[in-house]
Automatic annotation (TrEMBL):
The lineage of its organism: Eukaryota, Fungi, Fungi incertae sedis, Mucoromycota, Glomeromycotina. PANTHER family: RIBULOSE-5-PHOSPHATE-3-EPIMERASE. Catalyzes the reversible epimerization of D-ribulose 5-phosphate to D-xylulose 5-phosphate. It holds the Pfam family Ribul_P_3_epim. It comes from Cetraspora pellucida. It catalyses: D-ribulose 5-phosphate = D-xylulose 5-phosphate. This is Ribulose-phosphate 3-epimerase. Its EC number is 5.1.3.1.
Amino acid sequence: MPQAIISPSILSSDFAQLAVESQRMINEGADWLHIEASQDPGKLIDEIREHGMKVGVAVKPKTPIDVIFPLGHMIDMCLVMTVEPGFGGQKFMTECMPKVKALRERFPELNIEVDGGLSLDTIDEASKAGANVIVAGTSIFKASNPNEVIKTFRNKVTAEQVKYSKLD
Ligand SMILES: O=C(CO)[C@H](O)[C@H](O)COP(=O)(O)O
């Protein structure tokens, strides 16, 4: 099944607006939604599932990871932002790695995505912390051999993930 990963900048905590935005993306064919700003994440997760979609929750660097713990068993993926959302080319925030580690320890089967500053210099740290979905812009698009970079990312993630019960 094709998987569109859409990370909308929905800054409003207005549930009605979230519902409209979500519906619009469903109509466009998305089967993943990432939503960070919601007053009632449990309700939103249920609604997304009712539409047959998978659910991802994103946390910005300053958001403590324990807000995700009660949702961990209800979601398919957690995106741990490793830069402030906004634009590519920023520096990877090492200080976000304990959040990835804490999540992985509690949820061995959860897809944990990291986004921002991922490169050949930072993939070891991210994969060892437990991330298994890597979003990378600069390090791929500026590489002389993008395929090699992608292959290295995959190999490193795979090598670390065998420690856990499932790879997705
Ligand atoms: O858009 C972003 C943040 O909002 C991402 O960080 C971006 O997609 C990844 O880019 P890079 O690998 O250059 O950090």
